[in-house]
Design goal:
60s Ribosomal Protein L30, Chain: A; alpha+beta; 106 residues; 4-stranded mixed beta sheet
Length: 106
């Protein structure tokens, strides 16, 4: 079975942006939302085989360490294939990071 999780962003359960212009807060919330979505689909982090992270205003020196560390702490046991893409904008102008994933199970 394949499970595709669409883009998870830095919004809380009430639809409010977490951390305004803080990439760390956005990334932490996006991965927290990814965890919720995976659980709702009946899969776990270890089932994830591919992740794509879209980053507004990507700058390797300032953004990469934040994104890398949060991603690594989320996927401690099984590291999926991962692509990071710099983008000009996301669906809303106040969003900074979007994470999508594909999971595979028997």
């Amino acid at each position: 079975m394949l499970v595709h999780i669409s883009g998870q962003v830095g919004l809380d359960s009430d639809g409010n942006v977490v951390g305004a212009d803080d990439y760390t807060a956005h990334a932490q919330q996006a991965y927290a939302n990814l965890s919720i979505a995976l659980g709702a689909a009946g899969v776990s982090r270890s089932d994830v085989v591919k992740v794509t992270t879209f980053v507004v205003g990507y700058d390797h020196e300032s953004r990469w360490p934040v994104i890398r560390d949060i991603h690594a702490s989320f996927f401690k046991d099984a590291i999926p294939a991962w692509t990071v893409v710099g983008v000009e904008a996301l669906a809303r102008p106040d969003l900074l990071i979007e994470v999508e994933a594909t999971a595979a199970t028997d």
